[in-house]
Design goal:
Aldehyde Dehydrogenase, Chain A, domain 2; six-stranded mixed β-sheet; alpha/beta; Aldehyde Dehydrogenase, Chain A, domain 1; about 475 residues; seven-stranded mixed β-sheet
Length: about 475
């Protein structure tokens, strides 16, 4: 197990060394949640009154505190969630960049001035003000980046933050709070360890809620938030496809898709789960398989490792069960599927020959497993892309700009990448999916300020003379 959770305790364990306890914490009680929420509301009033310049300065200082602790944080991410070193270092760098970017968002205009259908000298202002306390429920796979791409814009907009991390990433979230606390009012950002009960209590204590996790849990969170009358955004699962057209650069496409599918053991909502090969391309599947075989599987602390362990026993079992089900449905395992101990390791799997309706082509596994499908033409490829309940991101590999401009608008996904990996996103651009991949407004960039703010329309009329 990567995390042990009881009614009173949270314990995170290293997925590459399950006997190693990375952190042990007391789960947040209902009384502690109420206290944290009251403290947050007091701190939020102080934070908002301090003004945008003070908020920008504080968030900039927080970014530098993270940068100064970058080596320590990378080691913690490696130990707690098994992220390969190169990606762990990259996530820390991204966390620093997110804070620096959002520090400047504190200074963007709060609204705009509209014309008034009244006497000259009147003013009509549409402004933004903070919602109050932002409740954040975050996953384990990006233990720094996802909490910060939620918390940083919430803070920039003038809110307080209550963060419930996934149990398996509690140590990283707790260290994040420790590093940020000296630069923020006391109680403005609080980490609340726990599981489902803590999440439910957090929802009841929040004025706005942001969730990232599975589709099943996300639907429940969204419904509960709507019932409670608070704004909600839920980023959920993905079953992302990459379409390879006959004119694509085979070597580039194979290498890029292999990395996007298997890097970090496929444990990203934006990982490539399906590759759709259009037309007769006899060499592509072989190139893809060889690229996957070339990825180094092993200890995430090693520089060369691209594929570390999955997060826990249940995650590894899900991959091995998916392989068995694929074989039973007529699929051919081209490579991978072997497990090894200690740690929750499973070698990356490529499967060919499954029908589109097979479970692997319809449901997310969240592990290092990739299904290869074949399409006669571009129209058939688009149908395969859209034939799932998910709609997060689609990749397209082609050298023809006209084809890209024609095909991309036909993908029922919130994002698209042309000649690039489905995995990854720019922190200053909006991030969000369609269908069962997302509910509510997009995250990141300028749209995040709108989500964490409420509009306030004010009319000023001249005094009669």
């Amino acid at each position: 197990m990567s995390a042990v959770l009881t009614d009173a305790a949270v314990e995170s364990r290293s997925p590459q060394r399950p006997d190693e306890v990375v952190g042990a914490f007391v789960a947040c009680s209902a009384a502690q949640m109420e206290t944290a929420a009251r403290t947050a509301r007091t701190a939020q009033a102080e934070w908002w009154a301090s003004g945008p310049g003070a908020r920008a300065t504080a968030l900039s200082a927080a970014a530098e505190a993270l940068a100064a602790a970058s080596g320590e944080l990378a080691e913690l991410v490696i130990a707690e969630v098994g992220k390969p070193r190169a990606e762990a270092v990259g996530e820390v760098d991204r966390a620093v960049a997110i804070l620096r970017y959002n520090a400047q968002l504190s200074l963007v205009p709060l609204g705009h001035h509209l014309p008034v259908a009244g006497p000259v000298g009147s003013l009509l202002l549409d402004t933004r003000r903070p919602r109050g306390v932002a409740g954040l429920i975050t996953p384990w796979n990006f233990p720094l980046a996802i909490p910060l791409w939620k918390a940083a814009p919430a803070l920039a907009a003038g809110n307080a933050v209550l963060l419930k991390p996934a149990p398996a990433a509690t140590a990283t979230a707790t260290r994040l709070q420790e590093l940020l606390a000296p630069h923020l009012p006391s109680g403005l950002l609080t980490v609340l360890p726990g599981g489902t009960a803590t999440g439910a209590a957090l929802l009841r204590s929040s004025d706005v809620l942001s969730f990232t996790g599975s589709t099943t849990v996300g639907r429940t969170v969204a419904a509960a938030s709507v019932a409670a009358g608070i704004p909600v955004q839920a980023e959920m699962g993905g079953l992302n496809a990459s379409v390879v057209l006959p004119d694509a650069d085979v070597a580039h496409a194979a290498k890029t898709i292999a990395s996007a599918a298997m890097g970090y053991a496929g444990q990203k909502c934006t990982a490539t789960s399906r590759v759709i090969v259009v037309g007769d391309q006899p060499g592509f599947v072989e190139a893809l398989t060889e690229a996957v075989r070339g990825l180094v599987v092993g200890d995430p602390a090693e520089e060369r490792t691209a594929v570390g362990p999955v997060i826990g026993a249940a995650a590894r079992e899900a991959v091995t069960e998916a392989v068995d089900a694929a074989r039973a449905a007529g699929g051919r395992v081209l490579t991978g599927g072997e497990t090894r101990d200690p740690g929750w390791f499973v070698s990356p799997v490529v499967i060919d020959g499954l029908p589109p309706q097979a479970r692997l082509n319809r449901e997310e596994v969240f592990g290092p497993i990739l299904s290869v499908l074949h399409a006669e033409d571009e129209d058939s490829a688009v149908q395969l892309v859209n034939a799932t309940r998910y709609g997060l991101v689609t990749g397209l590999f082609t050298r023809d700009l006209d084809r890209a401009l024609t095909l991309v608008p036909r993908f029922d996904t919130g994002m698209a990448k042309v000649n690039g990996a489905t995995s990854g996103a720019d922190y200053h651009a909006s991030f969000g999916g369609e269908k069962d991949s997302g509910y509510g407004p997009a995250e990141q960039g300028l749209p995040a300020l709108d989500f964490y703010s409420r509009h306030h329309t004010v009319t000023y009329l001249p005094t009669p003379r």
